[in-house]
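Recap from last week: sequence in, structure out.
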Amino acid sequence: MAHQFFFNSYILDNLPTPATGFDVVQDISEPRLRMYITSRGAKTFFVRKRVRGRDKRIIIGSYPDMDIEVARGMVATVLDDASKKIPVRRKKLSFKEFWDIYLKNQVRRSEDSEVKLVRAVNMHLGELFDKNVSDISKADVESVIGKIKGRAIAARMQEVLASLFKYAIDQGYAKNNPVLGLPKIVQQRRLSPLNEEKVLRLLDVIKSQETEVMKNAFLMMIYSFLPKNKVLSMRWDELDFNHYLWREWPLPDVAVVLLENMPQDGDWVFVGRCKNHLMDPRTAWHNVATAAGMPNLRMDDVYKFFMRQLVWASDREDLRTNMNNLLEKFGIY
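Predicted structure tokens:
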């Protein structure tokens, strides 16, 4: 059962985040209004409603972007809209037209993540673009999914299609979801080879590198709690050394010290060829990982490993403290 109390900004701002997954709390003033709190500190208003025989959770908005009173006021409208009969749209839309609508109204991602999703859909689902969304059959979906090489991306595209057709049904542009009934694509999950001892071994190998830019870039992947693409594309004008920030992301002390000791000339922190930023040093990384006894280690395995260990905090300074404590625990200081 959800924990119940009167929603106010002081309590919501100071709600503890769960270690994993999410917690749910409920408003006493408007009992139909609830909130998710995720392990990453995201807080989202929602309501529950049984629609056409199924329990449905309807997102209202994110806190604090949405005011508490506004969320309370929207509850009745959202529930009424969910109870309305699905409109039957006489106008037919192509898959591409409806994909654009779905992307605008349903996809909530960072700019970089949305660009990657659009690129993947254009690459793998392009043959559906000219078909009417209401005419796409199970065989069409099986055909397009079957041509995708790689189980991970095939599974992701199948999930996207399932969500898109569910939204098409809700909006009255389709009667059936052709993805339903398709066998779920089983992915072979790759396990990261990292542990505390191997992190220190990797760190020793990185510190022995002769190429300064590679050494600093690889160290930053360990120190910053950021994925490789963000580390490699860092710009000097995005760093705030007074507040220990890259953009809005807090940086641990050891990361700040590393950056302060680097020559700050040019636009990019890690300069590659033609005065652009370092792009994808996979050969250099492979040599480092092999020397550390982990030839299959990927650059983003480091980021994922540390983020799994990190205790999340919504307050930026608290998060930075947790980063420092974790790195100290690993003996990285």
